[in-house]
Amino acid sequence: MQTGLKIYTSNRLEILAKQLAQIVREPLSSPFAQETIVVQSLGMERWISMELASHNGISANCYFPFPNKLLQDIFKNIIPELPDDSPFESAVMTFKIMKILPACLSVPGFESIKSYLKDDINNLKLFQLAEKIADTFEQYLVFRPEMIFQWEEGREETDQEHRWQAYLWRELVKGNEKKHRAYLRKELFEKIKKKQVSFKDLPQRVSLFGISYMPPFHLKVFTQISQLGEVNLFILNPCMEYWADIASDSQIKKIKSKYSETNNVPTDLHLEKGNRLLASMGALGRDFFRLISSFDYEIYELFEDQSCHNMLSCIQSDILYLREGDNEKEPRQVAPTANIDDLSIQVHSCHSPNTSVEILLNSSSKGSVSLKQRSKYKSFDSPGLKSLPSHVLRAFSNASYSAFSFTSNK
Question: Looking at residue 19, what is its pLDDT?
Answer without folding.
Answer: 96
